[in-house]
C-alpha cells in the first residue's frame, strides 16, 4: 500500500488543528449523511497536512469527542478538506448539528493510502455502496483530475444504495456519468417510481457488468455484507486477490497505533490500513 | 534509557537504606510502593514512608497496582479547550523533560522491564506520546532485585529474572548485611551523587549477591514454555482450544488493568463550564465496548474472542510487531483473577497443542 | 463442628453425580470446582466428558458463585451451589435468565468458605504461602521456613457468619448430609453488623464509604462476578445519557457503586462474589446487606428463597411503604 508521510515526531500527535466549517451539503433524503467542507484556520497547517486518497482524519467536536472519518476530498482540490459523515452516535450527531462557521478539530492525515503508484497505467473499477463511496470519491477525483488523468486507464464506477434517496454525491455522479472516459452504473436495491436507472444489489450488478480483470484494479468500499459478496464476485470474474483493494473500518480512538483497539491480528487498521488488498485480508484473522 | 553507567558495582550497608531514601527525597519527588487500604501502589512517598524501608527486613513485596501508572496514569487530561476554540495541552502534561525530577523507588525487576515494552508503543519511531515520554525522561528507576519471588511469578520464562536489569537505572541486590548497588545508566549514577555511604564492592559482597541471585532464580516456581506457546499461537487463531480456555473468564478488567504492559486506552471529551477537556482513560480489550462499532456491529462479539485477543496480542501480535512478548511474568493477572484463570496454564495448554 | 472425612465424601458425591448426569445425557456440561493453580485457589471447572469428573473437588476454598455463568445459558447444565449461591440462581430463574428445567442444581450443605484476605492477615507479612493442605476443620499453610495450622472456622467469609440458609433452599440433588452443614445464623442476628454501622453518624458513614470507594479502579470485576449483573448494557457503559464521567473521581465511582447496589436490591443474597472479585479489597458488602435488610423489613421479602415470589423492585403493592430508598 502507499505509505503515509509521518508528521513531525516531536509534535503532540493528540493536538488537533483547528478548522472552520465553510460549507454543509445535505446528501441524502433522510438527511443522515452530510458533507462538510472545512478550511484550516491557520493556512500554514497545509505544510504539515499533506494527504493522499485513502487516508482519514480524527475529526473532533470539542466537548463531545473525536471520530475517524475518511477524507473524501482529493488532494488535487486545494484549500479545503471534505468529510462526508453519516449520523451514527455522539460525535457524528454533534457534527450534523454544526453549521457553517463552527470550529472543529482535525488531526491527521492518518493511515495508509490507496496504492496509487501501483495503479498507474491500469484500468480502475470503483465499486461502492452507500456512504462507502466517500473514501472512493477522493481517489476518483484524484484519478479524474487534469494533472493525473493520463496516468490511469479506463475508469468504471459501479455504485449503489438502498434507494435513490440514499445515493450520495448526486451532483458528482451526474458529472462523472456524463464523461466519455468513464463507464458508470448507478443502481438501487428495489424498484422505485421515477427511477430509470439500474435496479439490483451491487454484487449482482457487478456480475452483469463483468469488468475484465486484465490490467485492472478493483477498489471497493461499502457495508461489510456488500464487501463480502463483491469480493467473491470479483474472484469469480477472475480478479486475483492482489488486484482487489478495499478499505476497512474498526472502532478507533488514537489513530496512531497506540490505543490498541483497531487491531485485526497484528495489523493496526489505523496505521497499517485502512486500505488493504484482498490478498492481505485473506492472510488476516477474520475478525473485522 | 540514556547512556549506560560505568557498571562498577558499589555497596551500602542495609541500615543506610533509609539515609539513601532521604538523600533522594531531598532532590527528587520520590514515588514508592505505598499501602492504601490493603492495596499497594506507587504513590508519592513521604520521607517517613521511604525512611521506613531501612528498618524493615526487606523492601515491600511487588505492588498490587503496576508501575505503569507512574508513566501512564489511569486517567489524565490530554487537552483543555475553551468555548472560543482555543486548544491547549493540559497544564503540566507532555512537557519534554530535560532533567530527572522524579524517582520511582522500590521497583521490582519485572515492572522495570515492563517499561522497555511500553517504550515500544509510546516512544515508537513514527509517533511519540509526549505525555508518556515526558514522564519517562523525567523519572529514574531504582529497582530492588527479588529474593523471594511470589508464587505466581514466571519472569524467567519471558526473558527476565529476579535480578533482570532491563529498564532500571539503579539496581540494589541484597548481599548479606549490605546492598550491592549497581548503577545501570548515567541517570542511575546521578542518583548517587553526593551520597557518600557507598563504597566499592568487595569480592565477598559480590559473591553474596551472586548467591542471592541464584537462590532467587531457583525460587521462581514455574517454567512456562513461552517460546513453544508463541510458536504454536501463530497457527492457533482458529483452534477449538479457545472454546475451553475462555469459558470461566468473567470479562472483567482485572488482568488488563493490573498488567504492567497492557496499554490500551480510550479518549473522550468532558464538557466543563469553561469549555471542555479531552481525557484519556485506561481501557480493556476484555470489555465488549472496546470494539463495538456505532452501527452495532462488534468484531469481537463474545468473551471468547476477547479472551483470545488478550492472549494473542501479548504472545503473538506484539511479538510479530516488536519481536518480544508483551509480558514480564509478574504474575499479577494470575494472582488477582477472580476465577484463577491462569495465563501460565493457558500458555502450557497452547504449547501442548 | 464437622467430623469425619466429609470433604472427601462430598468430593466423591459430586464426581458421582456429575458422571451420572453426563453419562445419562441429562446435562451437556457440569460446572463445579477443581484445584486451582495457586496454593489458596480453586477454579471453576466446565466438565463435558464423564472421564473428566475426577477433576472435581470440594472444600472450604470453593469460593466462586458458579451461578454467574448461567444467564442466557445455552443447553442443559449441572451446577454446584452453596447455600448462598443458589439464592442467586433462584433469582435468575424468577427473572427468566435460565429455565428451571435447563439446570440440574447440585447443592452442597455448606460448611463455610474461607476468606483469603482474612487468611492472608493471619499468615502475616513475609515470605509467601507456597502450599496449603486442607484437613477437616483446619487449614495448614506452608512457605519457606514456616508452617501454620489455622482453624477454618476462624477464617470464614464475613457472609458465612450471617448465613441464614447454609443448606441450599432449592436443589435437585444434594451432595452431602444436611446435618453436617454449619449451623444457620438466627435471622435476628443476620443484620447486626449493618445495624451497628447504621448507628454511626452520617459523616462517619460517608467517610467510610468514601475511603473504600476511592480505591475502586473500575475494573468491574464485581459486576462481572455477580450472577445478577447480567444486563447486556450496564448503566455505567451508556454513553447517552452518560452516568459516569471520564475523570473517574469519587462522585463517578459513587454513582457506579450506588447504582449497582440499587440494581441488586431485593435480589442480592450476600453470596460475596463481588467482594471477593474486587482486587482493591473494597467493602462491597455493607450496602448490599442493608438492602437485604430493607427488603425483608419493608416488603417481607427474603431474596432468592422462593421461586414464586416476584422481585420486589419489579412489583407494586398498595401497602408498600414509600420511604424506601429515596
Ligand atoms: C478509517 C475509517 C474511516 C471512516 N470514514 C467514515 C466516513 O467517511 N464517514 C462516516 O460517516 N463514517 C466513517 N467512519 C465510521 C465512523 O468513524 C463512525 O461512524 C463514528 O466513529 C461513530 O462515532 P460516534 O461518536 O458518532 O458514535 P458513538 O457510537 O457515539 O461512538 C463512540 C466512539 O466510538 C468510536 N467508533 C464507534 N463506531 C466506530 C466505527 N464504526 N469506526 C470507528 N470508530 C468508531 C469513535 O471513536 C466514536 O467517537 C470511518 C471509520 C473508520 C475507522
Ligand atoms: S481477570 Fe480473569 S476473569 Fe477477569 S477478564 Fe482477566 S482472565 Fe477473565
Ligand atoms: S500478562 Fe500477567 S504476568 Fe504477564 S505482565 Fe501482564 S499481569 Fe504480569
Ligand atoms: S451483589 Fe455481590 S453478594 Fe449480592 S448477589 Fe451480586 S455478587 Fe453476590
Ligand atoms: S471489583 Fe472493586 S475495583 Fe473493580 S469495579 Fe468493583 S469495586 Fe471497583
Ligand atoms: S486507533 Fe488506536 S491503535 Fe488504532
Please, could you describe this protein's structure?
The complex is a heterotrimer of chains A (288), B (353) and C (326). Chain A has helices spanning 45-48, 90-96, 116-119, 133-144, 170-178, 202-209, 224-236, 278-283, and strands at 17-26, 33-40, 56-61, 65-70, 81-86, 103-110, 123-129, 155-161, 182-188, 198-199, 216-221, 244-247, 263-264, 267-268, 275-277. Chain A has 288 residues and is an alpha/beta fold. Chain A has two domains: 17-110, Translation factors (Elongation Factor Tu (Ef-tu), domain 3, Beta Barrel); 116-283, 3-Layer(aba) Sandwich (Rossmann fold). In chain A, β8 (155-161), α5 and β9 form a beta-alpha-beta unit. The longest helix of chain A is centred in the C-terminal third of the chain and has 13 residues, at 224-236. Chain A is globular, with a radius of gyration of 18 Å. Chain A starts with 16 loop residues before the first strand and ends in a 5-residue tail after the last helix. Chain B is α+β, with helices and mostly antiparallel strands. Chain B has two domains: 10-219, no CATH class; 226-351, no CATH class. Helices cover 33% and strands 20% of the residues of chain B. Chain B contains twelve helices and twelve strands. In chain B, the strands form two sheets. In chain B, strands 3-2-6-7-8-9-1-10 form an eight-stranded mixed β-sheet, with helices on both faces. In chain B, strands 5-4-12-11 form a four-stranded antiparallel β-sheet, with no helix packed on it. The longest helix of chain B has 20 residues, at 303-322. Chain B is globular and about 65 Å long. With 326 residues, chain C is α/β, with parallel strands linked by helices. Chain C has two domains: 7-180, no CATH class; 191-314, no CATH class. In chain C, strands 1, 2, 3, 4, 5 and 9 form a six-stranded mixed β-sheet that branches. Chain C is globular, with a radius of gyration of 20 Å. The mean pLDDT of chain C is 88. The structure holds flavin-adenine dinucleotide, iron/sulfur cluster (SF4) (4 copies) and FE2/S2 (inorganic) cluster. One iron/sulfur cluster (SF4) is lined by residues 249-252, 254-255, 286, 337-339, 341 of chain B.
Amino acid at each position: 500500500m502507499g505509505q503515509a508521510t509521518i508528521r513531525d515526531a516531536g509534535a503532540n500527535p493528540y493536538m488537533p488543528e483547528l478548522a472552520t466549517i465553510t460549507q454543509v451539503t445535505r446528501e441524502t433524503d433522510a438527511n443522515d449523511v452530510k458533507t462538510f467542507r472545512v478550511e484550516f484556520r491557520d493556512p500554514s497547517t497545509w505544510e504539515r497536512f499533506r494527504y493522499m486518497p485513502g487516508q482519514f482524519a480524527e475529526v473532533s467536536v470539542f466537548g463531545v469527542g473525536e471520530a475517524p472519518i475518511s477524507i473524501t476530498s482529493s488532494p488535487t482540490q486545494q484549500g479545503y478538506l471534505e468529510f462526508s459523515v453519516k449520523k451514527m452516535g455522539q460525535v457524528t450527531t454533534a457534527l450534523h448539528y454544526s453549521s457553517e462557521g463552527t470550529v472543529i478539530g482535525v488531526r491527521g492525515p492518518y493511515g495508509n493510502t490507496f496504492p496509487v503508484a501501483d495503479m498507474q497505467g491500469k484500468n480502475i473499477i470503483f465499486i461502492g455502496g452507500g456512504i462507502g463511496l466517500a473514501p472512493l470519491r477522493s481517489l476518483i477525483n484524484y484519478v479524474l483530475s487534469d494533472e493525473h488523468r493520463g496516468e490511469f486507464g479506463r475508469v468504471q464506477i459501479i455504485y449503489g444504495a438502498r434507494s435513490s434517496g440514499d445515493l450520495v454525491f448526486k451532483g458528482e455522479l451526474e458529472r462523472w456519468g456524463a464523461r466519455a472516459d468513464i463507464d458508470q452504473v448507478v443502481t438501487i436495491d428495489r424498484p422505485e417510481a421515477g427511477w430509470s436507472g439500474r435496479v439490483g444489489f451491487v454484487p449482482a450488478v457487478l456480475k452483469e457488468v463483468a469488468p475484465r480483470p486484465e490490467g485492472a484494479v478493483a477498489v471497493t468500499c461499502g457495508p461489510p455484507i456488500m464487501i463480502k459478496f463483491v469480493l467473491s464476485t470479483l474472484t469469480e470474474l477472475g480478479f486475483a486477490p492482489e488486484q482487489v483493494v478495499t478499505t476497512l473500518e474498526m472502532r478507533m480512538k488514537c489513530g496512531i497505533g497506540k490505543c490498541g483497539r483497531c487491531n485485526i491480528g497484528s495489523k493496526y487498521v489505523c496505521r497499517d490500513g485502512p486500505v488493504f488488498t484482498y490478498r492481505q485480508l485473506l492472510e488476516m484473522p477474520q475478525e473485522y | 534509557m540514556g547512556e549506560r553507567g560505568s557498571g562498577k558495582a558499589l555497596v551500602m550497608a542495609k541500615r543506610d537504606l533509609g539515609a539513601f531514601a532521604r538523600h533522594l527525597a531531598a532532590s527528587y519527588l520520590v514515588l514508592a510502593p505505598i499501602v492504601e487500604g490493603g492495596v499497594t501502589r506507587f504513590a508519592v512517598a513521604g520521607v517517613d514512608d521511604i525512611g521506613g524501608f531501612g528498618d524493615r527486613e526487606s523492601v515491600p513485596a511487588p505492588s498490587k497496582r503496576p508501575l505503569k501508572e507512574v508513566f501512564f496514569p489511569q486517567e489524565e487530561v490530554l487537552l483543555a479547550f475553551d468555548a472560543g476554540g482555543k486548544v491547549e495541552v493540559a497544564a503540566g502534561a507532555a512537557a519534554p523533560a530535560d532533567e530527572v525530577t522524579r524517582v520511582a523507588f522500590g521497583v521490582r525487576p519485572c515492572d522495570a522491564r515492563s517499561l522497555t515494552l511500553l517504550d515500544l508503543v509510546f516512544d515508537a519511531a513514527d509517533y511519540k506520546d509526549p505525555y508518556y515520554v515526558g514522564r519517562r525522561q523525567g523519572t529514574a528507576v531504582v529497582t530492588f532485585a527479588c529474593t523471594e519471588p511470589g508464587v505466581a511469578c514466571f519472569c524467567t520464562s519471558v526473558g527476565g529474572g529476579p535480578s533482570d536489569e532491563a529498564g532500571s537505572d539503579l539496581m540494589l541486590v541484597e548481599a548479606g548485611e549490605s546492598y550491592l548497588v549497581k548503577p545501570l545508566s548515567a541517570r542511575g549514577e546521578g542518583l548517587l551523587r553526593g551520597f557518600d555511604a557507598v563504597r566499592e564492592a568487595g569480592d565477598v559482597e559480590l559473591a553474596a549477591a551472586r548467591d542471592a541471585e541464584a537462590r532467587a532464580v531457583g525460587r521462581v516456581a514455574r517454567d512456562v514454555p513461552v517460546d513453544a506457546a508463541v510458536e504454536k499461537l501463530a497457527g492457533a487463531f482458529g483452534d477449538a482450544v479457545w472454546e475451553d480456555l475462555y469459558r470461566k473468564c468473567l470479562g472483567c478488567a482485572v488482568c488488563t488493568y493490573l498488567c504492567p504492559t497492557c496499554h490500551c486506552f480510550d479518549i473522550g471529551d468532558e464538557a466543563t463550564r469553561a469549555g471542555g477537556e479531552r481525557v484519556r482513560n485506561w481501557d480493556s480489550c476484555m470489555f465488549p465496548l472496546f470494539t463495538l462499532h456505532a452501527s452495532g456491529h462488534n468484531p469481537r462479539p463474545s468473551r471468547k474472542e476477547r479472551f483470545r485477543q488478550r492472549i494473542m496480542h501479548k504472545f503473538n501480535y506484539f511479538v510479530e510487531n516488536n519481536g518480544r512478548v508483551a509480558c514480564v511474568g509478574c504474575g499479577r493477572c494470575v494472582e488477582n483473577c477472580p476465577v484463577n484463570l491462569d495465563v501460565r496454564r493457558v500458555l502450557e495448554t497452547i504449547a501442548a497443542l | 463442628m464437622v467430623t469425619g472425612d466429609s470433604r472427601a465424601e462430598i468430593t466423591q458425591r459430586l464426581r458421582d453425580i456429575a458422571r451420572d448426569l453426563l453419562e445419562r445425557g441429562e446435562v451437556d456440561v457440569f460446572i463445579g470446582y477443581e484445584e486451582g493453580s495457586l496454593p489458596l485457589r480453586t477454579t471453576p471447572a466446565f466438565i463435558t466428558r464423564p472421564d473428566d469428573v475426577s477433576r472435581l473437588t470440594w472444600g472450604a476454598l470453593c469460593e466462586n458463585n458458579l451461578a454467574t455463568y448461567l444467564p442466557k445459558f445455552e443447553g442443559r447444565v449441572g451446577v454446584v451451589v452453596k447455600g448462598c449461591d443458589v439464592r442467586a440462581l433462584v433469582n435468575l430463574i424468577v427473572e427468566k435468565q435460565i429455565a428451571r428445567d435447563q439446570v440440574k442444581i447440585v447443592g452442597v450443605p455448606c460448611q463455610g468458605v474461607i476468606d483469603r484476605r482474612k487468611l492472608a492477615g493471619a499468615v502475616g507479612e513475609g515470605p509467601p504461602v507456597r502450599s496449603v493442605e486442607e484437613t477437616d476443620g483446619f487449614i495448614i499453610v506452608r512457605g519457606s521456613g514456616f508452617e501454620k495450622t489455622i482453624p477454618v472456622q476462624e477464617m470464614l467469609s464475613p457472609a458465612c457468619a450471617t448465613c441464614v440458609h447454609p443448606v441450599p433452599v432449592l436443589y435437585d440433588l444434594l451432595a452431602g448430609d444436611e446435618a453436617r452443614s454449619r449451623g444457620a445464623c438466627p435471622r435476628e442476628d443476620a443484620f447486626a453488623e449493618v445495624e451497628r454501622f447504621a448507628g454511626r453518624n452520617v459523616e462517619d458513614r460517608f467517610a467510610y464509604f468514601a475511603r473504600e470507594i476511592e480505591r475502586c479502579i473500575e475494573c468491574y470485576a464485581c459486576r462481572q462476578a455477580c450472577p445478577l449483573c447480567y444486563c447486556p448494557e450496564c448503566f455505567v457503559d451508556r454513553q447517552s445519557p452518560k452516568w459516569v464521567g471520564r475523570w473517574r473521581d469519587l462522585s463517578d465511582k459513587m454513582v457506579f457503586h450506588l447504582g449497582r447496589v440499587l440494581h441488586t436490591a431485593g435480589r442480592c443474597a450476600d453470596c460475596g462474589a463481588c467482594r471477593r472479585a474486587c482486587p482493591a479489597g473494597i467493602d462491597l458488602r455493607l450496602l448490599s446487606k442493608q438492602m437485604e435488610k430493607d427488603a425483608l423489613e419493608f416488603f417481607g421479602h427474603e431474596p432468592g428463597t422462593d421461586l414464586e415470589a416476584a422481585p420486589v423492585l419489579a412489583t407494586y403493592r398498595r401497602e408498600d411503604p414509600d420511604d424506601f430508598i429515596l
